[in-house]
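for the writeup, i need someone to sanity check this before i put it in the appendix. the sequnce is what the collaborator sent (i think, or maybe the updated version? ugh). structure was predicted straight from it, no edits. if anything looks off just tell me and ill rerun, i have time this weekend
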Amino acid sequence: MRTKSLKKNKINVVTLGCSKNVYDSEVLMGQLKASGKDVVHEEEGNIVVINTCGFINNAKEESINTILEFMQKKEDGDVDKVFVTGCLSERYKPDLQKEIPNVDAYFGTTELPGLLKALGADYKHELIGERLTTTPKNYAYLKIAEGCDRPCSFCAIPLMRGKHKSTPIEDLVTEAEKLAAKGVKELILIAQDLTYYGLDIYKKRNLAELLEALVKVDGIEWIRLHYAFPTGFPMDVLDVMNREPKICNYIDIPLQHISDSLLKSMRRGTTKEKTTKLLKEFRATVPNMTIRTTLIVGYPGETEDDFKELKTWVQDMRFERLGCFTYSHEENTHAYNLEDDVPEDVKQARANEIMEIQSQISWELNQEKIGKTFKVVIDRKEGNYFVGRTEFDSPDVDNEVLIDATKTYLKTGEFAMVKITDAADFDLYGEVLN
């Protein structure tokens, strides 16, 4: 046993779920490193921290399977300790402790100091903006707020993340400066709801003012907005987007549905008319804006007519980017009181139909890009291609630009002017202009 205790611990952080979890893992790793710990992300380590997602059924299953997989490794003697944190742990801690008791400890989303203590580290308040980033070096997520005050009927996030809490502008600028110093060129602003930013601490929607402060950070070339809520959207953000070249003409605004009766049941605080008007204002104010949205099909009570209305609207709006999810019946949400009455196969068929419509729209919009030149950031090399993105594309979810690596040498993390020569549904092909 003596040799075992002399072995230097290596902590492996495993991240599941969304970009907000990626950010939380990076903060945890930054704290561990500051305490002199040897920490890696999704590599081999004898101590494992699993940062879980508990949003919808598929995510919960993946989290539980990952926990079980590492418990088996613990039993086999391949790892010594397993800790579980994040949303699943926040939401279901008593159940998890009962069902998988041999996990060393469970921590919720707000228990970072306790988790650090269990790992033999101290929580350091002074580490504003100190993170070990796990994304490619050219971009990083910047979480501007935690939690959510919206009452959406289908969403369990407030159960796991609590009330909306904005991070002060000066702290975010400090964090952005530290990221820029490490070579980060693109900031992806994330929160459960960007639209609400500042209401709690500044008593007004303050996203535009935050953007004005972030564009002054040297080294940052692109700033991208993710997860804005349509109700109460601060329109002054569009003016800043138009005025400031660093702010990408891109917004991710999850709209969920368009049928008035479903929007009401979903407690979205808006209507089809208001939503359509908002999107038209977006396009009028920022003419070359890319709008990404996400939709839910199979929500309780969604009729064939509701679905047809959604399909027609998707065809009319011609979103540049769109994702579609099937409804997940989540306990303790408002919608859980409704009957989950759309069969699973119908939900899936509807999601497939929406995505077929979208892939055709995406193909048509991509054809229009052939012959045009775009500023492209190079994210990585894959096989014979350098893979990059335009300002109209977010990592992992949107279009990519493929450049033949046998003809051109490019550095990852650098920008290049690329002429588009061909286009598919979700990929663009281009050549670098010297």
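The radius of gyration is 22 Å. The first strand starts at residue 10 and ends at 15.
thx in advance!!
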